[in-house]
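Case study 2.
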Amino acid sequence: MAAPKKGRGPAGGGQGRPGRSLALILIVMVALAGGMFLSGHTTPRLGIDLAGGTSITLQAKSQPGKPNAINETNMNTAVGIIERRVNGLGVSEAEVQTQGSSNIIVNIPKGTNSEQARKQVGTTAQLYFRPVLTVEASGSDATPSASATPSGSASPSASASASAKATDGETATDGGKSSASPSPSATTQGRAVTGALTEDTTPSAPASADATAAATDDAAATDAASPSASTDPATAKLQAEFAALDCSDPKQRAAAGKDAKDTDTIVACGSNTPGSYEKYVLGPAAVSGSDVDNAQGAIDQSTGQWIVSMEFTSKGAKKFNKITSTLAQQTAPMNQFAIVLDGEVVSAPSVASALSANAQISGSFTQQEAEDLGNILSYGALPLTFKEASVTTVTAALGGEQLQAGLIAGAIGLALVVIYLVAYYRGLASIALLSLLVSGILTYTIMALLGPAIGFALNLPAVCGAIVAIGITADSFIVYFERVRDEIREGRTLRPAIERAWPRARRTILVSDFVSFLAAAVLFVVTVGKVQGFAFTLGLTTVLDVVVVFFFTKPVMTLMGRTKFFSSGHPWSGLDPKRLGAKPPLRRSRRVNSSTDPKEA
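Prediction:
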């Protein structure tokens, strides 16, 4: 009788050294657990629905003259800018992602700087430097000293001058020696822009042509805003807007200057002191926020006050030098330029001489205001205008309750699985429970490490995915156990039954897990937000199910088959041939069949 070829039979290969597989998975578990403790992240990072926080839905608004502005490119750009702004405040756990074609979801966990982050997520940060044409007080609370007549006689509330970085800290004019300090009221209440590098000390003749032309244009625009202006329809409309604008009204103040093009002459509001407002007529933008290379909040060493330091690009520096050279030739208020952020005048300093390269916005900034403005300017303006469609805040207490409910549901599901396994499979249930324990350890450690690695946050849907995974993992054990039982029913002893059942069970497990993983992958791709947490957890646990079954369950089953308790078919082993209705030994049935007619057999 020819011996079967080694490795071809079901009992061949793989059953002799199950310890290698067990050692490998043990090493992996120890490495993951060690990495978790060494990194200091011993618990998975929780999402806002479990830890508490704020979820903001931003909806993109269509812009005048830009019907196709809401597109995939601009939305992705906006996501990147918002994410950098929020992360710049130290809120590294924030999640920013698109939803549909016009919405952005921002999830900000509860914690340090979360409130500042919420204020910045939807700020468009459209920054422009616009020449001031007319300024006057607006609203009943405004002080007369801040006003300017329409003809252009104004007392500016803030001033700016060029300053070389001299050790004495003096501001400089044309000669660089004379003092040009702002008035005390401007210093304490207003905000000024100062050149942080060198002033332009060259003769003003080369800029005189531009200055003359700009002065003519600015004077014409100023006349357009005055009562004696021409009856041109656009000018008349501008006059009416300026006359009707009441900056003390929050609605009018919020609407003024918004959605305007950088080439438009606009009306806008500003405030240098609480309760006091000014309204402006501003010319077309001379410098934009894209010309700012870097900006940050810092403390002015000479005054001890918080300032925002701006560095211009080479192109922006030329533009800034040109506009300040032009404005330096004008008289108040047309020697002022307004720093306009999202349609609001942040500051309107006057210019004494040409500035270039760098600038500083100084005044009554708090640390938070300076850092927020620097952060916004540094990371750039959003390509779209957004409005808050919804804001949902979850308290930490509510998040804790949801987490507790999820854990209770998971415990109930696990308990039911354990009861079923013990009642039906008896001794085999120990193998299933050990496998579930290994799967749980791998899942927990990987989730804990994925938090700082890729920003994975365990939310309530993810907890649901982990609960579903208990059933998927238990199903794999059941498939294998039933295949082994089928072999025993056919009359085989335990050790051959374990090896013969494995190829058939392996195919079924792989097909089942592939379908589950495919469903999780599709769900992850086509959905957004919290549903992706469910899909990601389901996919992760499905992959781990394959790892556990191949590298733990099968080797342990092989080792258990060598013990007397299981190999003898003990009634509590779950593999008792009598309880399973096993047929007579397979070899005896073959002898009988060989001596009888096949049809009778």
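The first strand starts at residue 53 and ends at 61.
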